Amino acid sequence: MGFFDSVAGTSARAEQNFCDYKDTFEDKPVLISCDVNMIDIFPTSSIPVCVKIQMDAFLDQNSPDLISNAEYSHISSMRNILTQHLGGRFAGEGIIASQESVFLIYYIPQRMVDTARNMLTEGFAGSFRHTDFSISYDPEGESYKKFLYPTEVQLKQIENNKILTTLNGYGDDGTEPRTIRFNIIFPNRKAGIDYYTKAAEKDFEYESMEQIPAPAGMVLPRYHLVLKRELPFDIDLLDLVDEYLLDIAKPLEGEYKSLETDIV
């Protein structure tokens, strides 16, 4: 029986929600899978220790997943073993094309530090892949936020990918231009009008604006602006659109909430 098989552990109980998105590092792609719900546990006293493991990977940059199915199977097996025995919570992973490597991040209880260090040292000894690990006290989740948690634009990308997956399920690959509607919330009507005026410079069209009830705990109503534009449902293009809409919303205290479209 190997050391990985002989060490018992428990995983964190909170609900997990893994979402995938892409980024770049040194002008090459990075694929990230992040438990986005984990942002709500920080700061944490129950699992305040970050374990980051980085290992060589055999990449296939012609694959949209950057690695072959066989390589992903190996990484998945390693992840499952570590999740079972580290006694904490798996936060996410990244595949880094420029470094030909994969990293995994876990958060574990303080009492499991020595066990984790011994397990990893013994488990990776003599491995044919170069593997490093680090263990650090991180109750604020700084490593999670730096390496895993998506930016505002990347959060939108995650939502867009979910919509595209739904479209694909109905035989729509997103390439055909269609009306895409964008929902933005403002503290007052003037801010909404100013936003539309700015967005019209980029060919966004006005569809509607209506007063909606004040959020819980607040008094003044909000204003829901809907803009539209004819576009293909292309993730890379929508990244640029989302970045623009987010940027022009900030000075007007607007909140770009979501987009929606129909099957074509």
Radius of gyration, taken over Cα atoms and rounded to an integer in Å: 22 Å
Structural class: alpha+beta
Average pLDDT confidence is 90
Overall geometric form: globular
β-sheet strand percentage: 25-35%
Order of helices and strands: HEEEHEEHEHHEHEEHE
Distance between the termini: 55 Å
Let me know the number of strands: 10
The low-pLDDT segments are 1-12
Give, in spatial order, the strands making up the sheet with the most strands. 1-2-4-5-3-6
Topology (SSEs and partners):
Layout (H helix, E strand, L loop, with lengths): L2 H4 L11 E8 L2 E8 L13 E8 L12 H17 L3 E8 L4 E8 L4 H12 L6 E7 L4 H6 L4 H18 L8 E9 L2 H11 L5 E8 L9 E10 L3 H15 L5 E7 L3
Antiparallel strand pairs: 1-2, 2-4, 3-5, 3-6, 4-5, 7-9, 7-10, 8-9
Any overview of this molecule?
The longest helix is centred in the middle third of the chain and has 18 residues. It is built from seven helices and ten strands. The protein is of the alpha+beta class and 264 residues long. A hairpin with a 2-residue loop joins strand 1 and strand 2. It has two domains: 145 residues; 110 residues, RraB-like (Alpha-Beta Plaits), CATH 3.30.70.
Q: What is the gist of this entry?
A:
By secondary structure, the chain is of the alpha+beta class.
List keywords for this structure.
alpha+beta; Alpha-Beta Plaits; 2 domains; 6-stranded antiparallel sheet; 4-stranded antiparallel sheet; 7 helices; 31% strand; globular; disordered N terminus
